[in-house]
User: What shape does this take?
Amino acid sequence: MKVAYLGIGSNIGDREHNLITAIERIKFHYPILDISSIHTTSPIGYTRQAAFLNMVVKVDTAKSSPFEVLSTVKTIEKNMGRVKTFMWGPRLIDIDILHMEKTVLTTDVLTLPHREMFKRNFVLIPLSEITDMISVNGEDIRINDAINDDSEQHVQIFKKKQDIEIE
Assistant: This one.
């Protein structure tokens, strides 16, 4: 087993349905090990847009390279109708690889762990629901210690994980 954490977000259309659809498509490729609750979060960067729904999914990527996982999630986004707009712009669906066990890399197309992961409460708070700690370069990082007391990042539970139905 090779554990990976995927961040999923949406702020266009039926946001909750978009998240659930993404998970259902992800599970065709990777076993789902756990999911977080769905959180509503205020947008960052470009703030003149609807609030996002965000969550984190824990998957087993044992049979795939990081680039294969990236290709899979980008194909899911495209097939769901995601259209690239501008940095921090609205998204029908956004799936990011946050962390892959024992993987550290920096390329033009993929950086692991995700370069913004430790700056974003909308990632860290849901992530803290499904793991206490991750290891980066042999250093254990406690997720709750990484959560920022940044008043600009409003994150609150939209739907608890036990109430989320995935087929």
User: Anything to note?
Assistant: The radius of gyration is 15 Å. DSSP finds four helices and ten strands in the chain.
